[in-house]
Amino acid sequence: MRGTRAAQRYAKAILSLAKDKNSAEAVNKDMITISKTVLNSRDLENMLTSPVVKDSIKKSALLEIFKDLDTITKGAIDIMITNGRISILHLVARQYIVLYNDLNNVRQAVVTTAIPLDGQLKSIVLAKVKELTGSEASLKNIVDEDIIGGFVLRVGDMQYDASVSRNLTRLKRELKDNTYVSKI
Prior knowledge:
By secondary structure, this protein is of the alpha+beta class. The chain has 2 domains: 99 residues, Peroxidase, domain 1 (Orthogonal Bundle); 72 residues, no CATH class. Helix content is 61%, strand content 15%. It has a 4-stranded mixed sheet. α2 crosses α6. The longest helix has 17 residues. The protein is elongated. One of its GO terms (cellular component) is plasma membrane. It is a peripheral membrane protein. Pfam families: OSCP (PF00213). Its main location: membrane. InterPro entries: ATP_synth_OSCP/delta_N_sf, ATPase_OSCP/dsu.
């Protein structure tokens, strides 16, 4: 993907400055907001990548959309506009989040469920992640009705499958391989 090396460099620099100024958490919240907003708005992404739109308009639009940004985040946007790199803002935001999570030993957990998680279920799943990995995690929920019930939890390269569909498949396999049941 184009611009990922530059995005990583910007993210490292922003994180370093944010740590020095004790605002890494506030900047992380800004980056999460920026990443989600750009990801969900095709118009905003097109505006940021358009060579036709002037940098001053891009800056004023970003500052209007994201009103409560930390001063470090605002400064990063200024530098990226000055250097002609504002088109990779969403990549910088995503890379910053990854670096921040690595720094704070927070892992990304993906949980697949048949229905969307509510607050209580979310806390139960986060407790299970803490039990399995020994570290905190941010949670992403994917809804897949094919698992019927239960959940499938993925943290890094580890997977914990407590879905109904898996249990049914396992039971079907056991019954199929059972010599007594197969004769019936």
